[in-house]
Specification:
By secondary structure, the chain is mostly helical. It contains 4 helices and no strands.
């Protein structure tokens, strides 16, 4: 049954079993994908928000005010519980809008 190198000797019944198990797993994966897509479609039809929640604009404004007062960006972000990336994005959007400290027009 076992070969000298520790592998199981392939036989027709074993190969058939592996082929059937492979087919079943592929079929189950397709069903899983279909169920996920059906759930997403249902959520969209019901108007549910999908994806990661947006960072609070109030927290971003408060962190931006700290930065304007001289606090380092990392410390301001940590103090207000927002990510540095979100704060940097907010700061660049507000400076691009020409009005520092004002909320930018958010798309989407």
């Amino acid at each position: 049954m076992m070969l000298a190198n520790g592998r199981i000797k392939p036989t027709p019944p074993r190969e058939l079993l592996v082929a059937v198990m492979s087919w079943v797993s592929g079929f189950e994966r397709q069903r899983l994908i279909e169920r996920v897509h059906a759930g997403l479609d249902r959520a969209r039809r019901q108007g549910e928000a999908l994806g990661r929640p947006r960072t609070s604009i109030v927290l971003l404004r408060a962190a931006a005010e700290l930065v304007e007062a001289g606090t380092p960006v990392a410390a301001a972000a940590r103090a207000k519980g927002v990510s540095r990336a979100s704060l940097y994005r907010y700061l660049s959007e507000t400076s691009a809008a020409g009005a520092p400290g004002k909320a930018p027009a958010l798309a989407g």
